[in-house]
Amino acid sequence: MTTSPVAARTPLYKVLYIQVLVAIVVGVLLGYFYPNIGKAMKPLGDAFIALIKMMIAPAIFCTVVHGIASISDMRKVGRIGVKTLFYFETVSTIALLVGLLVAKVLQPGAGFNIDPSKLDPHSVASYVTRAKEDGFVAHLMGIIPTSYFDSLAKGDLLQVLLVAILSGFAIANMGKPGEQIAAAIDLGGKMFFRIIGMIVKVAPIGAFGAMAFTIGSFGLGALVNLGYLILAFYAASILFVLVVLGTIAYFFGFSILRFIAYIKDELLIVLGTSSSETVLPHMLQKMEKLGASKSVVGLVIPTGYSFNLDGTNIYMTLATLFLAQATNTPLTFAQEATILAVAMLTSKGASGVTGAGFVTLAATLSIIPDIPITSLAIIIGIDKFMSECRALTNLIGNGVATVVISRWEGELDKDQLRRALEHPISYGEELEQQAV
Asked: Which residue has the higher pLDDT, 408 or 347?
Protein backbone atom coordinates (compact mmCIF):
# COMPACT_ATOMS: atom_id res chain seq x y z
CA MET A 1 0.00 0.00 0.00
CA THR A 2 1.40 3.37 -1.01
CA THR A 3 1.35 6.35 1.31
CA SER A 4 -0.63 9.36 0.18
CA PRO A 5 1.66 12.27 -0.72
CA VAL A 6 -0.65 14.57 1.24
CA ALA A 7 -0.30 12.49 4.40
CA ALA A 8 3.43 12.01 3.85
CA ARG A 9 4.27 15.70 3.85
CA THR A 10 1.94 16.71 6.70
CA PRO A 11 3.65 16.73 10.12
CA LEU A 12 1.62 15.06 12.87
CA TYR A 13 1.38 18.26 14.92
CA LYS A 14 -0.39 19.95 11.99
CA VAL A 15 -3.13 17.31 11.73
CA LEU A 16 -6.40 18.82 12.96
CA TYR A 17 -7.69 15.86 14.98
CA ILE A 18 -4.36 15.61 16.85
CA GLN A 19 -4.52 19.31 17.68
CA VAL A 20 -8.11 19.01 18.92
CA LEU A 21 -7.32 15.90 20.98
CA VAL A 22 -4.40 17.63 22.69
CA ALA A 23 -6.53 20.73 23.29
CA ILE A 24 -9.26 18.64 24.95
CA VAL A 25 -6.77 16.96 27.29
CA VAL A 26 -5.16 20.30 28.22
CA GLY A 27 -8.61 21.81 28.78
CA VAL A 28 -9.62 18.98 31.12
CA LEU A 29 -6.40 19.32 33.12
CA LEU A 30 -6.73 23.09 33.41
CA GLY A 31 -10.38 22.88 34.48
CA TYR A 32 -9.60 20.20 37.07
CA PHE A 33 -6.52 21.74 38.70
CA TYR A 34 -7.42 25.41 38.22
CA PRO A 35 -11.24 25.56 38.05
CA ASN A 36 -11.49 29.35 38.24
CA ILE A 37 -9.11 29.77 35.31
CA GLY A 38 -11.00 27.01 33.49
CA LYS A 39 -14.28 28.89 33.91
CA ALA A 40 -12.63 32.00 32.47
CA MET A 41 -11.90 30.08 29.24
CA LYS A 42 -15.60 29.95 28.36
CA PRO A 43 -15.41 32.83 25.82
CA LEU A 44 -12.97 30.80 23.69
CA GLY A 45 -15.48 28.00 23.22
CA ASP A 46 -18.39 30.38 22.79
CA ALA A 47 -16.52 32.43 20.20
CA PHE A 48 -15.67 29.39 18.08
CA ILE A 49 -19.27 28.15 18.12
CA ALA A 50 -20.50 31.67 17.27
CA LEU A 51 -18.09 31.88 14.32
CA ILE A 52 -19.32 28.58 12.92
CA LYS A 53 -22.99 29.40 13.53
CA MET A 54 -22.41 32.67 11.68
CA MET A 55 -21.67 30.67 8.52
CA ILE A 56 -24.16 27.81 8.86
CA ALA A 57 -27.25 29.57 7.46
CA PRO A 58 -25.66 30.88 4.21
CA ALA A 59 -23.72 27.65 3.63
CA ILE A 60 -26.81 25.47 4.08
CA PHE A 61 -28.92 27.82 1.98
CA CYS A 62 -26.50 27.68 -0.95
CA THR A 63 -26.08 23.90 -0.68
CA VAL A 64 -29.80 23.10 -0.59
CA VAL A 65 -30.77 25.63 -3.27
CA HIS A 66 -28.08 24.47 -5.69
CA GLY A 67 -28.80 20.82 -4.95
CA ILE A 68 -32.51 21.15 -5.79
CA ALA A 69 -32.01 23.56 -8.69
CA SER A 70 -29.51 21.20 -10.32
CA ILE A 71 -32.06 18.38 -10.41
CA SER A 72 -34.19 18.75 -13.53
CA ASP A 73 -36.69 16.11 -12.40
CA MET A 74 -38.67 17.57 -9.51
CA ARG A 75 -40.24 14.19 -8.86
CA LYS A 76 -36.77 13.00 -7.92
CA VAL A 77 -36.57 15.68 -5.21
CA GLY A 78 -39.87 14.46 -3.83
CA ARG A 79 -38.73 10.84 -4.01
CA ILE A 80 -35.53 11.60 -2.10
CA GLY A 81 -37.52 13.55 0.48
CA VAL A 82 -39.96 10.70 1.08
CA LYS A 83 -37.16 8.14 1.41
CA THR A 84 -35.26 10.42 3.76
CA LEU A 85 -38.22 11.04 6.08
CA PHE A 86 -39.11 7.32 6.08
CA TYR A 87 -35.55 6.42 7.05
CA PHE A 88 -35.39 9.13 9.71
CA GLU A 89 -38.64 8.08 11.37
CA THR A 90 -37.68 4.39 11.35
CA VAL A 91 -34.20 4.85 12.81
CA SER A 92 -35.33 7.54 15.28
CA THR A 93 -37.99 5.20 16.63
CA ILE A 94 -35.38 2.47 17.07
CA ALA A 95 -33.21 4.97 18.98
CA LEU A 96 -36.10 5.75 21.32
CA LEU A 97 -36.63 2.03 21.91
CA VAL A 98 -32.92 1.50 22.62
CA GLY A 99 -33.00 4.19 25.32
CA LEU A 100 -36.13 2.66 26.81
CA LEU A 101 -34.69 -0.86 26.75
CA VAL A 102 -31.37 0.13 28.36
CA ALA A 103 -33.19 2.06 31.10
CA LYS A 104 -35.38 -0.94 31.92
CA VAL A 105 -32.48 -3.39 31.91
CA LEU A 106 -29.83 -1.36 33.77
CA GLN A 107 -32.25 0.53 36.08
CA PRO A 108 -29.87 3.51 36.53
CA GLY A 109 -32.32 5.39 38.77
CA ALA A 110 -33.13 2.53 41.14
CA GLY A 111 -32.24 3.17 44.77
CA PHE A 112 -32.16 6.98 44.65
CA ASN A 113 -35.50 7.27 46.51
CA ILE A 114 -35.69 11.01 45.89
CA ASP A 115 -38.60 13.07 47.21
CA PRO A 116 -39.48 15.57 44.42
CA SER A 117 -40.96 17.99 46.94
CA LYS A 118 -37.50 18.55 48.40
CA LEU A 119 -35.95 19.52 45.06
CA ASP A 120 -35.37 23.13 44.08
CA PRO A 121 -37.84 24.01 41.28
CA HIS A 122 -35.99 27.26 40.47
CA SER A 123 -33.00 25.35 39.09
CA VAL A 124 -35.09 24.07 36.17
CA ALA A 125 -37.53 26.97 35.85
CA SER A 126 -35.90 28.42 32.73
CA TYR A 127 -35.95 25.05 30.94
CA VAL A 128 -39.60 24.46 31.85
CA THR A 129 -40.51 27.94 30.58
CA ARG A 130 -38.72 27.33 27.28
CA ALA A 131 -40.41 23.95 26.94
CA LYS A 132 -43.86 25.53 27.39
CA GLU A 133 -43.06 28.32 24.96
CA ASP A 134 -41.84 25.81 22.37
CA GLY A 135 -45.16 23.95 22.13
CA PHE A 136 -45.93 21.78 19.11
CA VAL A 137 -48.15 24.32 17.34
CA ALA A 138 -45.76 27.17 18.16
CA HIS A 139 -42.91 25.05 16.84
CA LEU A 140 -44.72 24.50 13.52
CA MET A 141 -45.55 28.20 13.16
CA GLY A 142 -41.97 29.06 14.03
CA ILE A 143 -40.78 27.32 10.86
CA ILE A 144 -42.17 30.24 8.84
CA PRO A 145 -39.83 33.28 9.00
CA THR A 146 -41.15 36.84 9.15
CA SER A 147 -39.32 37.62 5.90
CA TYR A 148 -37.16 35.92 3.30
CA PHE A 149 -33.90 37.21 4.73
CA ASP A 150 -34.99 36.91 8.37
CA SER A 151 -34.27 33.18 8.30
CA LEU A 152 -30.70 33.82 7.18
CA ALA A 153 -30.27 36.61 9.71
CA LYS A 154 -31.49 34.54 12.67
CA GLY A 155 -29.86 31.32 11.51
CA ASP A 156 -32.91 29.17 12.37
CA LEU A 157 -32.12 25.92 10.54
CA LEU A 158 -35.73 24.88 9.85
CA GLN A 159 -36.55 28.35 8.52
CA VAL A 160 -33.45 28.30 6.32
CA LEU A 161 -34.48 24.89 4.96
CA LEU A 162 -37.98 26.12 4.13
CA VAL A 163 -36.71 29.20 2.28
CA ALA A 164 -33.97 27.21 0.52
CA ILE A 165 -36.37 24.49 -0.65
CA LEU A 166 -38.84 27.05 -2.04
CA SER A 167 -36.00 28.93 -3.73
CA GLY A 168 -34.57 25.73 -5.20
CA PHE A 169 -37.91 24.75 -6.75
CA ALA A 170 -38.44 28.26 -8.11
CA ILE A 171 -34.99 28.42 -9.71
CA ALA A 172 -35.35 24.93 -11.18
CA ASN A 173 -38.44 26.11 -13.11
CA MET A 174 -36.88 29.31 -14.49
CA GLY A 175 -35.05 27.72 -17.40
CA LYS A 176 -31.85 29.41 -18.61
CA PRO A 177 -31.99 32.34 -16.13
CA GLY A 178 -32.41 29.78 -13.36
CA GLU A 179 -29.22 28.02 -14.43
CA GLN A 180 -27.32 31.30 -14.16
CA ILE A 181 -28.75 31.98 -10.69
CA ALA A 182 -27.88 28.42 -9.59
CA ALA A 183 -24.31 28.86 -10.85
CA ALA A 184 -23.97 32.14 -8.92
CA ILE A 185 -25.32 30.52 -5.74
CA ASP A 186 -22.88 27.63 -6.18
CA LEU A 187 -20.00 30.12 -6.36
CA GLY A 188 -21.31 31.86 -3.26
CA GLY A 189 -21.42 28.51 -1.47
CA LYS A 190 -17.79 27.87 -2.33
CA MET A 191 -16.87 31.22 -0.80
CA PHE A 192 -18.74 30.41 2.41
CA PHE A 193 -17.06 27.01 2.66
CA ARG A 194 -13.67 28.66 2.16
CA ILE A 195 -14.42 30.92 5.14
CA ILE A 196 -15.51 27.89 7.17
CA GLY A 197 -12.25 26.16 6.31
CA MET A 198 -10.40 29.13 7.80
CA ILE A 199 -12.53 29.07 10.98
CA VAL A 200 -12.11 25.32 11.49
CA LYS A 201 -8.37 25.86 11.83
CA VAL A 202 -8.99 27.42 15.26
CA ALA A 203 -11.15 24.49 16.41
CA PRO A 204 -8.49 23.36 18.94
CA ILE A 205 -8.77 26.73 20.72
CA GLY A 206 -12.55 26.43 20.85
CA ALA A 207 -12.40 22.84 22.11
CA PHE A 208 -9.85 23.84 24.78
CA GLY A 209 -12.01 26.70 26.04
CA ALA A 210 -15.24 24.69 26.09
CA MET A 211 -13.71 21.70 27.88
CA ALA A 212 -11.83 23.81 30.44
CA PHE A 213 -15.07 25.64 31.27
CA THR A 214 -17.07 22.41 31.59
CA ILE A 215 -14.65 20.72 33.99
CA GLY A 216 -13.98 23.96 35.88
CA SER A 217 -17.69 24.67 36.35
CA PHE A 218 -19.07 21.22 37.12
CA GLY A 219 -15.96 19.31 38.19
CA LEU A 220 -15.35 15.61 37.90
CA GLY A 221 -17.39 15.11 41.08
CA ALA A 222 -20.61 15.42 39.09
CA LEU A 223 -19.48 12.44 37.04
CA VAL A 224 -19.07 10.36 40.18
CA ASN A 225 -22.40 11.27 41.80
CA LEU A 226 -24.51 10.24 38.83
CA GLY A 227 -21.89 8.19 37.03
CA TYR A 228 -24.12 5.17 36.52
CA LEU A 229 -26.62 7.22 34.50
CA ILE A 230 -23.82 8.66 32.37
CA LEU A 231 -22.36 5.19 31.79
CA ALA A 232 -25.81 3.83 30.91
CA PHE A 233 -26.33 6.60 28.37
CA TYR A 234 -22.91 6.14 26.79
CA ALA A 235 -23.48 2.36 26.71
CA ALA A 236 -26.87 2.84 25.02
CA SER A 237 -25.36 5.21 22.45
CA ILE A 238 -22.45 2.88 21.69
CA LEU A 239 -24.87 -0.03 21.39
CA PHE A 240 -26.99 1.95 18.96
CA VAL A 241 -24.03 3.08 16.84
CA LEU A 242 -22.29 -0.30 16.63
CA VAL A 243 -25.32 -2.59 16.44
CA VAL A 244 -28.12 -0.58 14.81
CA LEU A 245 -26.13 1.79 12.60
CA GLY A 246 -23.44 -0.87 12.15
CA THR A 247 -26.01 -3.32 10.80
CA ILE A 248 -27.49 -0.70 8.48
CA ALA A 249 -24.01 0.20 7.23
CA TYR A 250 -23.18 -3.48 6.65
CA PHE A 251 -26.26 -4.04 4.50
CA PHE A 252 -25.45 -0.94 2.47
CA GLY A 253 -21.87 -1.99 1.81
CA PHE A 254 -19.59 -0.14 4.25
CA SER A 255 -18.07 -0.50 7.71
CA ILE A 256 -19.33 1.66 10.56
CA LEU A 257 -15.89 1.60 12.20
CA ARG A 258 -14.18 2.80 9.03
CA PHE A 259 -16.83 5.49 8.68
CA ILE A 260 -16.19 6.69 12.24
CA ALA A 261 -12.47 6.83 11.45
CA TYR A 262 -13.26 8.87 8.34
CA ILE A 263 -15.10 11.58 10.33
CA LYS A 264 -12.81 11.51 13.39
CA ASP A 265 -11.82 15.18 12.97
CA GLU A 266 -15.45 16.23 13.14
CA LEU A 267 -16.16 13.89 16.07
CA LEU A 268 -13.33 15.39 18.11
CA ILE A 269 -14.50 18.93 17.41
CA VAL A 270 -18.01 17.94 18.52
CA LEU A 271 -16.56 16.29 21.63
CA GLY A 272 -14.76 19.49 22.54
CA THR A 273 -17.60 21.91 21.80
CA SER A 274 -20.66 19.74 22.65
CA SER A 275 -22.31 20.96 19.45
CA SER A 276 -22.79 19.00 16.25
CA GLU A 277 -23.60 22.26 14.43
CA THR A 278 -19.93 23.27 14.58
CA VAL A 279 -19.12 20.66 11.92
CA LEU A 280 -22.31 20.77 9.83
CA PRO A 281 -20.78 22.60 6.85
CA HIS A 282 -17.66 20.42 6.98
CA MET A 283 -19.81 17.26 6.98
CA LEU A 284 -21.49 18.41 3.76
CA GLN A 285 -18.12 18.46 2.04
CA LYS A 286 -16.93 15.21 3.56
CA MET A 287 -20.05 13.31 2.53
CA GLU A 288 -19.59 14.46 -1.06
CA LYS A 289 -15.94 13.41 -0.86
CA LEU A 290 -17.16 10.02 0.37
CA GLY A 291 -19.01 9.45 -2.90
CA ALA A 292 -22.54 10.59 -2.01
CA SER A 293 -24.27 12.70 -4.63
CA LYS A 294 -24.42 16.45 -4.05
CA SER A 295 -28.21 16.54 -4.36
CA VAL A 296 -28.68 13.87 -1.67
CA VAL A 297 -26.09 15.44 0.65
CA GLY A 298 -27.74 18.85 0.31
CA LEU A 299 -31.12 17.45 1.36
CA VAL A 300 -30.27 14.74 3.89
CA ILE A 301 -27.61 16.38 6.12
CA PRO A 302 -29.45 19.67 6.85
CA THR A 303 -32.81 17.90 7.30
CA GLY A 304 -31.20 15.32 9.58
CA TYR A 305 -30.16 18.04 12.02
CA SER A 306 -33.84 18.53 12.83
CA PHE A 307 -35.44 15.16 12.12
CA ASN A 308 -32.77 12.51 12.72
CA LEU A 309 -31.45 13.17 16.23
CA ASP A 310 -30.67 9.63 17.31
CA GLY A 311 -28.57 10.61 20.32
CA THR A 312 -31.24 12.99 21.56
CA ASN A 313 -33.90 10.29 21.20
CA ILE A 314 -31.89 7.78 23.21
CA TYR A 315 -31.30 10.40 25.90
CA MET A 316 -34.96 11.37 26.16
CA THR A 317 -36.38 7.90 26.85
CA LEU A 318 -33.43 6.84 29.02
CA ALA A 319 -33.49 10.04 31.12
CA THR A 320 -37.29 9.97 31.43
CA LEU A 321 -37.26 6.43 32.83
CA PHE A 322 -34.29 7.29 35.04
CA LEU A 323 -36.25 10.14 36.64
CA ALA A 324 -39.25 7.87 37.10
CA GLN A 325 -37.05 5.26 38.80
CA ALA A 326 -35.23 7.86 40.93
CA THR A 327 -38.53 9.33 42.21
CA ASN A 328 -40.17 5.89 42.60
CA THR A 329 -42.82 6.74 40.01
CA PRO A 330 -44.28 3.49 38.62
CA LEU A 331 -45.06 3.50 34.91
CA THR A 332 -47.49 1.20 33.11
CA PHE A 333 -46.91 -0.13 29.61
CA ALA A 334 -49.44 2.41 28.31
CA GLN A 335 -47.53 5.26 29.98
CA GLU A 336 -44.24 4.05 28.47
CA ALA A 337 -45.90 3.93 25.06
CA THR A 338 -47.10 7.50 25.64
CA ILE A 339 -43.55 8.56 26.46
CA LEU A 340 -42.40 7.09 23.14
CA ALA A 341 -45.12 8.87 21.20
CA VAL A 342 -44.54 12.21 22.90
CA ALA A 343 -40.76 11.94 22.53
CA MET A 344 -41.15 11.32 18.78
CA LEU A 345 -42.82 14.74 18.52
CA THR A 346 -40.79 16.79 21.00
CA SER A 347 -37.45 15.59 19.63
CA LYS A 348 -38.14 17.02 16.15
CA GLY A 349 -36.42 20.30 15.55
CA ALA A 350 -34.04 20.02 18.52
CA SER A 351 -30.82 21.74 17.59
CA GLY A 352 -27.31 20.37 17.97
CA VAL A 353 -26.48 23.25 20.34
CA THR A 354 -25.80 22.40 23.97
CA GLY A 355 -28.91 22.41 26.15
CA ALA A 356 -31.46 21.66 23.42
CA GLY A 357 -31.69 18.02 24.51
CA PHE A 358 -32.48 19.13 28.05
CA VAL A 359 -35.22 21.46 26.81
CA THR A 360 -36.84 18.68 24.77
CA LEU A 361 -36.69 16.45 27.85
CA ALA A 362 -38.48 19.18 29.83
CA ALA A 363 -41.07 19.42 27.05
CA THR A 364 -41.65 15.67 27.24
CA LEU A 365 -42.09 15.70 31.02
CA SER A 366 -44.45 18.68 30.85
CA ILE A 367 -46.81 16.59 28.71
CA ILE A 368 -46.51 13.52 30.95
CA PRO A 369 -47.73 14.64 34.42
CA ASP A 370 -46.95 11.32 36.13
CA ILE A 371 -43.24 12.14 36.46
CA PRO A 372 -42.67 15.35 38.49
CA ILE A 373 -40.99 17.92 36.27
CA THR A 374 -39.00 19.24 39.24
CA SER A 375 -37.07 15.95 39.11
CA LEU A 376 -35.09 17.49 36.25
CA ALA A 377 -33.01 19.15 38.97
CA ILE A 378 -31.44 15.74 39.62
CA ILE A 379 -29.60 15.64 36.32
CA ILE A 380 -29.15 19.31 35.44
CA GLY A 381 -25.60 19.24 36.80
CA ILE A 382 -24.47 16.35 34.59
CA ASP A 383 -26.43 17.14 31.43
CA LYS A 384 -23.38 18.88 29.99
CA PHE A 385 -21.41 15.62 30.19
CA MET A 386 -24.12 13.81 28.26
CA SER A 387 -24.61 16.51 25.63
CA GLU A 388 -21.32 15.52 24.01
CA CYS A 389 -22.53 11.96 23.53
CA ARG A 390 -25.87 13.18 22.16
CA ALA A 391 -24.11 15.35 19.61
CA LEU A 392 -21.64 12.61 18.61
CA THR A 393 -24.41 10.06 18.08
CA ASN A 394 -26.49 12.57 16.12
CA LEU A 395 -23.54 13.30 13.85
CA ILE A 396 -22.74 9.66 13.12
CA GLY A 397 -26.42 8.91 12.50
CA ASN A 398 -26.78 11.71 9.95
CA GLY A 399 -23.60 10.68 8.16
CA VAL A 400 -24.77 7.08 7.86
CA ALA A 401 -28.18 8.28 6.65
CA THR A 402 -26.54 10.26 3.85
CA VAL A 403 -24.63 7.25 2.54
CA VAL A 404 -27.72 5.02 2.83
CA ILE A 405 -30.03 7.41 0.95
CA SER A 406 -27.38 7.94 -1.75
CA ARG A 407 -27.02 4.18 -2.19
CA TRP A 408 -30.82 3.80 -2.14
CA GLU A 409 -31.06 6.35 -4.94
CA GLY A 410 -28.31 4.65 -6.93
CA GLU A 411 -26.16 7.79 -6.69
CA LEU A 412 -23.31 6.52 -4.51
CA ASP A 413 -19.85 6.18 -6.04
CA LYS A 414 -18.91 2.83 -4.47
CA ASP A 415 -15.27 2.98 -5.60
CA GLN A 416 -14.84 6.45 -4.12
CA LEU A 417 -16.54 5.28 -0.91
CA ARG A 418 -14.13 2.36 -0.63
CA ARG A 419 -11.04 4.50 -1.30
CA ALA A 420 -12.11 7.21 1.16
CA LEU A 421 -12.81 4.73 3.97
CA GLU A 422 -9.54 2.88 3.35
CA HIS A 423 -7.51 6.11 3.53
CA PRO A 424 -9.49 8.38 5.89
CA ILE A 425 -6.49 10.47 6.99
CA SER A 426 -5.33 11.42 3.50
CA TYR A 427 -8.88 12.21 2.39
CA GLY A 428 -9.50 14.36 5.46
CA GLU A 429 -6.29 16.31 5.03
CA GLU A 430 -6.91 16.79 1.33
CA LEU A 431 -10.30 18.28 2.16
CA GLU A 432 -8.75 20.65 4.71
CA GLN A 433 -6.17 21.84 2.17
CA GLN A 434 -8.88 22.48 -0.42
CA ALA A 435 -10.85 24.55 2.09
CA VAL A 436 -7.99 26.94 2.80
From this structure: 408
